[in-house]
């Protein structure tokens, strides 16, 4: 994991895929900012949106699907309704059947990153719920490589 100083310095340019999210009134907690649980919900949503749009994932029927085995988040500043969030995604590492994502949350119109999270997924075969001996499906891997740090990136 990157150190906090480097994470706080993240910009949108560090991420090849960005998804916009309009916050809802119900996202706020009693402290008038987005509740911590919503960050994980949004991180999961941007990852799965990318997987469906660019990696051929069809959650109800794909032969493999990703199970989250680790998640972590660092919070730097709050965001609250009615702000529009921008969820920025990149892949920091791809293994045989696992992928490590980094997700940053920005507020539209502001440069400073609000939070940076990490999710690790292991892709498993639907029939066994275990990683395949053959590893990750090639279409999944190719899509993830497009947003891999240090890989052949293209702005999505």
UniProtKB/TrEMBL annotation:
Keywords: Hydrolase. One of its GO terms (molecular function) is fatty acyl-CoA hydrolase activity. Gene3D superfamilies: Hotdog Thioesterase. SUPFAM superfamilies: Thioesterase/thiol ester dehydrase-isomerase (SSF54637). The keyword Hydrolase applies. Coiled coil: none annotated. Belongs to the 4-hydroxybenzoyl-CoA thioesterase family. PANTHER family: 4-HYDROXYBENZOYL-COA THIOESTERASE FAMILY MEMBER, NOVEL THIOESTERASE SUPERFAMILY DOMAIN AND SAPOSIN A-TYPE DOMAIN CONTAINING PROTEIN (0610012H03RIK). This is HotDog domain-containing protein.
